[in-house]
Structure formats: C-alpha cells, structure tokens
C-alpha cells in the first residue's frame, strides 16, 4: 500500500518537474507571477505622483522599460515622464503621461502604459510630430497583441501623425486665449464706462439737489 502511494506521488512529482523544465509551462507561470507583482505595485499608487513614489526607479518597471527602449530612448522617455504628476488608471490600463506642447517644432511627449489584461508594457515617444511606439511582444491565439492606449493619449497620437492637425490645435488654443483676453478687456472697459457714467450722474444729481436746496433756502429768507 505504501509502496503504491509512493510510486503514485513520485510519478506526479516527476510529471511536474518535466512540465517546469519545458518553456511552454514555465512561461505562463512566470508571466502570471510578473503580472500579479505589477498589479500589486501599481494599483495602490494610482493618483500619486510617480516621482514622489519613485515608480520608474522600481526594478519591476525600470528593467522592463530598459529592455524595451534601450538606453538612449529610455533616458529620453524618463526625462519626459518626470514632468508628469499622476499615475492614472483607465479600465485595465495603468498609465503615466508627460506634459505636451502642441507646437510641431518642439512637440515632445511620452506615454507609459501597462495593460493588466495582457501584461503588456508599451511606451510612446512623440518628438517633432512623429510618434514612436515601443511595445513588448505579446501573443494571443498566436497573433501579436496590438498595444492599447488610454483615451487621453489617443488624440495626441493622432495629432502627432498629422502636422496640420497640430498647427490647427495650436492655432485654436492661441485663438481661444486671444478671445478670452479680448473679452476680459472689453468687459473691463464696459465696467469703467458704466462706473464713470454712474458717477457722473450721481455728481450731477448731487449738484442739482444742492443747487435746488440753496435756492429754496434763499427763497425762505426773503421777507
């Protein structure tokens, strides 16, 4: 009885060891563990400044970003991402977006995205109106998974592919600022005119009342 049980357990242990030595078995286990670690790292930090919590210094993030981007692109991405002030979440996407200038000649932005559904890390670098996308290779049904981007980044990437759209965006922003400034100036001038007219009327009324009172007093004093 004990010998039979021993043989059964030995067979199961042997099968498990054989499975662990095969990359097809090891990879899903490692990916699953890596995904859980990333979730445990990022989820509590949503809403926090990534610079204050040293997000990009954590080895779980830094090692993968360095492998994905290479040293030069990593340094560029890090320089831009340090202008961000919040780690955000949209559905399964955890992301950090740097500040953005819509002027094509100086347009630079970086976006860091980790998809918790696929455990795919992706980074986009936009410089001079041309976006570069770096994404970890993830397969689903033997097909490459296309990286997903948060809603806040999609218009920026679309505009980056079209310099005319960037110019229009910059012009719209400049026009909006000009209209806002002009409206404020007109309002100030209108307020000044109204206040001035009101003051003039009040002064005229006071003079008229004062003059009428003086006339009445003089009339009363006449015998």
UniProtKB/TrEMBL annotation:
Superkingdom assignment: Bacteria
Protein name, per record: Lipoprotein
Species, as recorded: Pseudaeromonas paramecii
């Amino acid at each position: 009885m004990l010998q039979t049980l021993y043989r059964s357990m030995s067979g199961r242990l042997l099968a498990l060891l054989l499975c662990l030595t095969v990359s097809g078995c090891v990879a899903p286990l490692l990916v699953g563990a890596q995904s859980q670690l990333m979730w445990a790292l990022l989820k509590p930090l949503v809403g926090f400044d990534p610079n204050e919590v040293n997000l990009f210094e954590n080895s779980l993030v830094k090692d993968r970003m360095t492998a994905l981007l290479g040293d030069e692109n990593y340094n560029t991405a890090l320089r831009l991402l340090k202008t961000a002030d919040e780690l955000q979440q949209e559905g399964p996407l955890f992301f950090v977006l740097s500040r953005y200038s819509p002027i094509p000649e100086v347009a630079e932005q970086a976006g860091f995205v980790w998809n918790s559904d696929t455990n795919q890390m992706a980074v986009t670098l936009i410089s001079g109106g041309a976006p570069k996308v770096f994404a970890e290779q993830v397969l689903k049904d033997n097909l490459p998974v296309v990286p997903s981007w948060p809603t806040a980044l999609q218009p920026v990437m679309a505009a980056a592919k079209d310099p005319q759209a960037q110019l229009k965006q910059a012009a719209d922003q400049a026009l909006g600022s000009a209209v806002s400034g002009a409206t404020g100036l007109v309002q100030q001038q209108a307020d000044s005119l109204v206040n001035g007219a009101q003051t003039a009327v009040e002064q005229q009324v006071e003079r008229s009342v004062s003059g009428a009172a003086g006339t009445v007093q003089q009339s009363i004093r006449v015998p």
